[in-house]
Amino acid sequence: MTSYPPSNKPSPFRFHRPSLATAMGGGNPPVINLWRRTDLNFYHINVPKSSISCQECFGRPDSNASSPSVPESQQTRSLDKYVNVLDFPKHNGLAGLDRLASGHVEDKPFPWFADLRYTWRTPIPHRYLNVDRDVLSSIRVQQSVDDYMQLKKNICYKHAMEKAANCLKEMRASLNRLICRICGWGLFKVFRRVMKRLLICPNEMERLQEAEKTGIPIIYLPLHRSHLDYLMITWTVWHWNLRLPHIASGDNLNMFGFGWILRGVGSFFIRRRLDENDESGRDQLYRSVLKTYMTEILKMPTSLEFFLEGTRSRYGKTLLPKNGLISNIVEAATNGEIPDAYLVPVSYTYDQTVEGIFFDELQGNRKKRESILGTIKGVWNAFGIPERCGSVRVHFGPPRLLSDYMRTLSSAIQDSREHFDLTHAPHMNCYRELLPWHNERCQDPQRTLIRAIGYHVVHTAQNQTSISMCSLISALLLCKYRTSGAHISDLRADLEWLVTETISRGFDVIGWESGHTHQNEATTEALSHLSESVVLHGDHVFLKLVHKEVLNVSYQRNALIPPFSVTSAVALAFVSKSADVDGLVSRALQVCNLLQMEVIFCKPCENLRQKIADEVNQMVSDGLIELRTNPPLDGRGETEDLKVCNRDFIDVLHFYANILRPFLQTLLFVLDSLLDPSGQSMNNKMIKGSFPSACLDFPCFRQRICPPTPNDEEDLRTSDAIPHASRSIQLRLDQQLRETAQGEEDHCRERQNRVEQPRRRQNTPCLDCRSARRNLEELL
Question: Compositionally biased, Basic and acidic residues: which spans (predicted)?
Fold first, then answer.
């Protein structure tokens, strides 16, 4: 690594500033009005959208050309701003894009019946055919029907086909243009009630229009934050005359009345769980019908939409992708059933989600099943707070062909297997070479490729997401000012610094225009969405140390994990123990290993070790840390260590480290609960009997994680990732149980006279858990 000279760059954090009252020459502290109007530019784009494309897989994008997957002869117009779709009826939709992009139309009154006239005039030009006959007559379904008859023995072909038809009737959509128009008009009213503005980039939509002209089906793969997500995609593409997608929804939403409406706008319902070990053949028949139904939809061709995460994120961060539905698409393309498909990552930015932060579930209570009464109550509560969601952005990534993903990722995965190594790994599956798409126990390369595609799409989606001012302020309040509070002038200066850092990492910030936006306006906008979680005392801002409000701010802060995940891992490694460059990189990799089920640090086509090394080099280049040579000791030669350049920069490193620190704290306390005081792990009976309640609902150790009184800035009440962290530990223990069970079977077969030995093996320490606990103690 290149050694850089120390820098005299001042600390980005500000200390001991005079109060606003002193600066203004008055004796009384200023009154901060959180509800006054702010003059922010919500339509400006700070980061060119072309920079989001993956250069490793698809080459360097040209900002003046369309996506490489779209014919180059078809160019998109240059309107590199966002527009508010809620104002479309004022200016006749797409015909008034230039006026909408100016951002000076919000105060213009709506003409009479503007929404109704716009809804009636906006066409739904495409046909949506019924594919029931094609599904039931397909070879795949017929083969599954035959297998089902062989398993049941006493069932005839007619009854078996009725089973298949019932499966199809249970899931299929019934897209109706009249219902779509009525819902399109109604959503104008709903969205204006729950959000200030709904921002879409016209360039992104024009790329989708060009992709649709090729005749290749489009698959929208959004991240999932709210029940508004799937409504917004269908509603948005309608304005640009794109095909309305068929939406994969959970059967929990198939409620009386509400399910009929969702079917009418394109939703088809699938079961949330299927038994992999089903011996009756019913689930296998259901899988065949589902796979064929999705294939026939794409062959029409009609767009498809499903959530790779599988469920709404309860933590404000991206969840690891599930690979069931996307494997059906890959199989259909591989078998030639569809020519190809465009994969479009979609993500959202909310100031606040309409449902809130899922407080009950984060407390350990089980999720309540959706019901009509609960839906009505949720809608009523959402309507009770006008513009609760604030400014909402929907981000449509560049459409890329599935065949391109398969071709480029196949070689990238092979290269990473050959050149990547984690020397500190406690076992061979540690971090699975890069991330969980590398599964050494999985011998099928097709499954590995499917996992890699899912992770690549999700990583692209999270990295194209804009960051809200609310998330930036939340990060500062939690990671720096949690206990001491912040002077408003310090908070404003730190916000401006953090905005600059976020934009420099390729992430846009909503409402910020470099060189024009004032930090006072940005701070006021952010605090207006956190009014229930902060206390304003004179010219100071304090975080309410109440569990619910800390979780609310934590949810917002987690939006900063994508831009700062690697930086936080390096900072955690640095503040825990000084080391040379190689030692720091290895220690940061150790952090990534421990958080492999929490954070996606890199794409499958990237090398994580190199990415961490680049981050260390960047810190040295920025003057945050420096490489110093130590004199020889005890006959050894000179050594080189990384040191902090400036004492004030220690606070910067701690700020970065605190972004991921709560997840490590949670893991440590979960491990403490799994290990007895002597350092030994639970036996099989204890794990099977106590683990689900102890780690998923965690009533047994809730007081340890949520102490009754506030602690220091390491307060574990901000550890909002307990259920997900428990899942990580559960996977490790499941593997340990399988290994123990296999060992017991081997010993029983070989030594029948030594029955007690397998029982003693159950109470031996779990080396994986103990090793992880030691690593966590060193890092924290």
Answer: 744-759
Strands in 158-214 per DSSP E: 197-200
Residue 268, H or E segment: strand 267-270
- Which residue, chain included where needed, has tokens 């649709």? 212
Instruction: Give bridge partners of residue 433 from the DSSP assignment.
Output: 435
pLDDT-based confidence at residue 664 (cuts at 50, 70, 90):
confident
The amino acid sitting at 93 is: G
CATH class of 578-654: mainly alpha
Contact predicate 268/172, CB 8 Å? yes
**Long-range contacts, stretch 578-585, CB < 8 angstroms, 24+ apart:** 578/641, 578/642, 578/643, 579/641, 579/642, 580/639, 580/640, 580/641, 580/642, 581/1, 581/613, 581/616, 581/627, 581/640, 581/642, 584/616, 584/642, 585/609, 585/612, 585/613, 585/616
Q: Which residues contact 319 (CB under 8 A, 6 or more apart)?
A: 224, 309, 310, 311, 313, 724
In angstroms, rounded to a whole number, what is the distance separating the alpha carbons of residues 366 and 409?
A: 38
Domain ranges of the chain: 67-128+175-245+302-462, 578-654, 656-779
pLDDT at position 593: 85
H-type alpha helices, 214-310: 228-239, 258-264, 282-299
Q: What whole-number distance in Å separates Cα of residue 367 and Cα of residue 162?
A: 34
Q: Rounded CA gap, 453 and 408, in Å? A: 10
Query: Residue 127 contacts by C-beta under 8 Å, 6 or more apart in sequence?
Result: none
- Residue 252, judged by CB atoms within 10 A of its CB (0-12, 13-18, 19+), counts as middle
Residue 719 has pLDDT above 70, yes or no: no
Give the E-state strand segments of 134-230 in sequence order.
197-200, 218-222
pTM: 0.82
Please say whether the beta carbons of 510 and 467 come within 8 A: yes
